[in-house]
Amino acid sequence: MSVLTLDLRPGAGIGAFSLGMPVCEALAYIEQHHSVFDVVHIKFNDEDPLQFDLVISFPEHGFHLRFEPRTQRLRLIEVYDVQRLQMRYATSSIGGPSVAATFVAVYALFGPTFPGSFDAKRNIYTLFYPGLAFTFPIPGQYTNCCQDREAELPIEFPDGTTPVMSRVCIYDGALGGNVEAGANLAALIKKAIPPQLPSGSLYMEEVHAKLAEDLFFTTSKKRLPFGASPQDVWAELGRPDGIHQKQVDPMVIHSASDPRPNSAL
What we know:
The chain is an alpha+beta fold. It has helices at residues 23-32, 103-110, 177-180, 185-191, 230-237, 250-257; strands spanning 4-9, 13-14, 17-18, 41-43, 54-58, 63-67, 74-79, 85-89, 92-95, 117-119, 124-129, 132-137, 167-171, 207-210, 214-217, 222-225. The chain has an 8-stranded antiparallel sheet, covered by helices on one side. It has a 5-stranded mixed sheet with strand order 3-2-1-8-9, with helices on one face.
């Protein structure tokens, strides 16, 4: 299987997946490109679905998408296996099976930044750029090189080697210092939120339902009476983003509506 290459957009997304996009758009794109994304895992907590992320994972390509559970908008993209996905930034590539993505290579491609944070419990060093974070496992014998936030960048070990990237996280750049100041990977995954919706957006429009009467859309000021025809709904709300065709077996319907007992004569 050839390695997938996607454009890396710090603070915005990767490939066609953009931060803030609804899960329905992501699924529609995946379905349209099923030959590329032929193995897809969807993970959620069925006991408490509003407390935990909805995750779309691509195990063959080493990355997954985290959707905020209430709005179902993309809040974080994680590349957890950098050898399975090649990322293209400007005219250069990073990741993939052929070339190790080292600390020095990342630093040369994305430029200088502030010293990152070191998780001493897991021996993980996280380097932050606006809307982008890279993690690097640090061998136990060299952890002293990363303890000081004033450590010289790029990090190189006494034997001349440099850490190799293990994970990439893409999040909304507007989050800024709320994540980056002394944060680690766990804090980033927890705090990252979808981009703010534009003013006047109808994505999360409040709807009031009056029993046996109608639905009232508080932002667009539209009203739909119960019993309205599909044509009335289209005329009031506009063309739907998608239509689901229900597959019905007419023999099953006939069987279910047959009043005769099932016992044999």
